[in-house]
Design brief:
The complex is a heterodimer of chains A (330) and B (235).
Chain A (H helix, E strand, L loop, with lengths): L5 H5 L7 H16 L7 H27 L7 H17 L4 H23 L4 H21 L1 H4 L5 E2 L5 E2 L2 E2 L6 H24 L1 H11 L1 H6 L5 H26 L1 E2 L6 H14 L6 H19 L3 H15 L3 H14 L1
Antiparallel strand pairs in A: 1-4, 2-3
Helix pairs in contact in A: 3-8, 3-11, 3-12, 3-13, 4-5, 4-11, 5-11, 8-9, 12-13, 12-15, 13-14, 13-15
Chain B lengths: L5 E10 L2 E11 L4 E5 L6 H9 L8 E4 L2 E2 L5 H7 L1 E3 L12 H11 L5 H7 L15 H13 L5 E5 L7 H18 L2 E5 L3 H7 L2 E6 L2 E6 L1 H5 L2 H8 L4
Parallel strand pairs in B: 3-8, 3-9, 6-7, 7-8
Antiparallel strand pairs in B: 1-2, 1-4, 4-5, 9-10
Helix pairs in contact in B: 3-4, 3-5, 6-7
The chains are: A mainly alpha (330), B alpha/beta (235).
Chain lengths: 330, 235
């Protein structure tokens, strides 16, 4: 009989990540240096928007990666983060710090509760249910004008300081860029660690073969709901950051077109790697800016690009990069 | 008197208007290797599904070591000591062999993953994703997942399906050896009669959802009802 270490000794299934880790550190460091390297406030402001989009796309992509589920309604959690932050702040319903904490928690909590029901249903039905849930909330914020001025949206005024931090930093492109960049990196590292954890492995197993997971003794609904909550929490964080930066909330934050854009970003970037959707979001954002300047028919160009990426690189840009690196390493 | 390892009383199951299982009684002693045979549509896989809770029995009772587990979900039955493998290979294709065994071990009261890997000859390929291993290795992995935790009762649905004659016989020997060594009661649904008559202590024959016969391999081989309904004269 082999030593009891057989499993652990043979377990490193995935290739060593050392070169990837170095590359990640280089990207992180380079990103941090950008504001100090003469980047214009306009560019930094665009990057802030792109990073916030990247966070939303990361949430959507994470759900695909870990649960194998495509959400058409993640804008719900993005918008909810914004509304739970903005509405109590505007109406003076809660201490501002409490509103911030709730804004970070409520999207994840709602997703967990919803997830206990809707993640039991696979495939297109789940996608439709996620869309239906999001549109329900969209209708509420659109129709209930007393909440946040309905269709017009609402400006949100923040106190000068929150948790001892100067709120002005969250509205200045340079400092907000750094905050968003570091938070995105933290989210990606956190999600990556989750995928490597025993619980992450269980969620992958459930995605791969739910019935088998049940027949080796695992409960499968809560882990699915937990992944849904985690992905919604990331989307909610993006919504909170967007609200701080823009100082404005509107029903558009929950509209299905935003969910659709996040999904397109995730598809372009690829969902096999945790960071794929973030890459897709940045590419999508700047591609949209550039093409949008050239033609008003930019959505058609995005659509064609999506078709090309899906056909030529089904694993998205991250899959393409991984293949290139693997080829070079070989 | 020793309680049976697993017992089914009046197990029934219908699909639409079709009675796949019709009042079947089954009693399997501890440590026994029991074969379940019968023509296609006899109710063999349905019996497995009803015993493990994958399909609900319309009436009837399932007892595991004397304990009524009829109301338990598949997961709870597994935790109570009832494991199964599937007719179609049912593993986690995206995970490595080692990862899935570790996952199964984490949920089991006894984590004997190392032992199972070695016993089933999977230690050498523990680092490979299941999607990249051969069909025969996947069948053994399927069996390994069911064996982690040393279940009291192991239900195997056509474990030799799709294997070559040599692989089937090797699988049969392995099963018999593991059942003896680890005191596991085995219920085996199988079409390969060489495997069934080679390793089973007793055999139950189902026909059209009902119990046709039950006995030792020699008794079953010479039972005119079984010969007529399933084995034919060549058996």
């Amino acid at each position: 009989m082999t030593s009891p270490a057989t499993l652990t000794a043979t377990a490193p299934a995935r290739p060593a990540r050392a070169p990837g880790s170095v590359l990640a550190l280089v990207v992180l460091g380079t990103g941090c240096l950008l504001p100090f390297a003469g980047a214009s406030p306009l560019l930094l402001s665009l990057l802030v928007q792109a990073i916030i989009g990247a966070m939303l796309a990361t949430g959507v992509g994470f759900l695909v990666r870990q649960n194998g589920m495509v959400s058409f309604g993640h804008a719900l959690f993005f918008g909810l983060g914004g509304y739970v932050l903005g509405v109590p702040m505007a109406h003076g319903l809660l201490p501002p710090e409490m509103a911030v904490l709730l804004a970070l928690l409520v999207p994840a909590l709602l997703a967990f509760l919803l997830g206990l029901v809707i993640t039991r249903i696979p495939g297109v039905a789940f996608s439709m249910l996620s869309l239906a849930c999001a549109q329900t909330f969209y209708e509420v914020v659109l129709k209930v004008r007393t909440l946040a001025n309905g269709d017009d949206g609402m400006s949100v005024t923040f106190p000068a300081r929150l948790f001892g931090l100067d709120v002005g930093l969250l509205q200045d492109p340079r400092s907000m860029y750094l905050i968003c960049w570091v938070l995105l990196a933290a989210v990606l590292v956190g999600l990556w660690l989750f995928t490597r954890s025993p619980y992450g492995l269980l969620t992958l197993a459930i995605r791969s073969n739910e019935e088998r997971a049940r027949f080796i003794g695992y409960e499968t609904v809560v882990p699915r709901a937990a992944v849904y909550a985690l992905s919604a929490g990331v989307a909610g964080l993006a919504g909170v950051l967007a609200t701080f930066y823009n100082g404005f909330i509107s029903p558009d934050m929950m509209h299905w077109t935003l969910s659709g854009s996040a999904l397109v970003m995730a598809v372009i970037g690829g969902t096999r790697a945790v960071w794929g959707p973030a890459l897709g979001a940045v590419v999508f954002f700047f591609f949209k800016e550039i093409v949008g300047d050239a033609t008003e028919h930019w959505p058609a160009v995005i659509g064609i690009t999506l078709i090309v990426v899906t056909l030529c690189a089904p694993a998205g840009l991250s899959g393409l990069l991984a293949r290139l690196f693997a080829r070079r390493a070989a | 008197m020793t309680l049976p390892a697993i017992e089914g009383r009046a197990l029934s199951r219908t699909y639409g208007g079709f009675r796949a299982l019709d009042g079947v009684d089954l009693k399997v002693a501890r440590g026994e290797v029991r074969g379940i045979i019968g023509p296609n549509g006899a109710g063999k896989s349905t019996l497995m599904d009803v015993l493990t809770g994958r399909a609900a029995s319309r009436g009837g009772t399932v007892l595991l070591g004397g304990r009524d587990i009829s109301a338990l979900a598949p997961r709870a039955r597994q935790r109570a000591g009832l494991a199964r493998s599937f007719q179609k290979t049912n593993v986690f294709l995206d995970l490595t062999v080692g990862e899935q065994i570790r996952l199964a071990g984490r949920c089991a009261t006894l984590d004997n993953g190392e032992e199972v890997l070695v016993a089933l000859g999977l230690a050498e390929i523990a680092h490979r994703p299941a999607a990249d291993i051969s069909y025969g290795d996947r069948r053994r992995l399927d069996l390994a997942l069911a064996l982690v935790g040393r279940p009291q009762v192991l239900l195997l649905d056509e474990p030799a399906a799709g294997l070559t004659v040599e692989e089937s016989l090797a699988m049969a020997d392995l099963l018999k050896d593991l059942a003896r060594r680890w005191h596991v009661t085995v219920l085996l649904v199988e079409h390969d009669m060489e495997v069934v008559f080679g390793i089973c202590d007793r055999i139950t024959v189902l026909h059209l959802g009902r119990l046709l016969a039950e006995g030792t391999p020699a008794e079953i081989r010479s039972d005119p009802r079984v010969i007529s309904a399933y084995l034919g004269t060549a058996a």
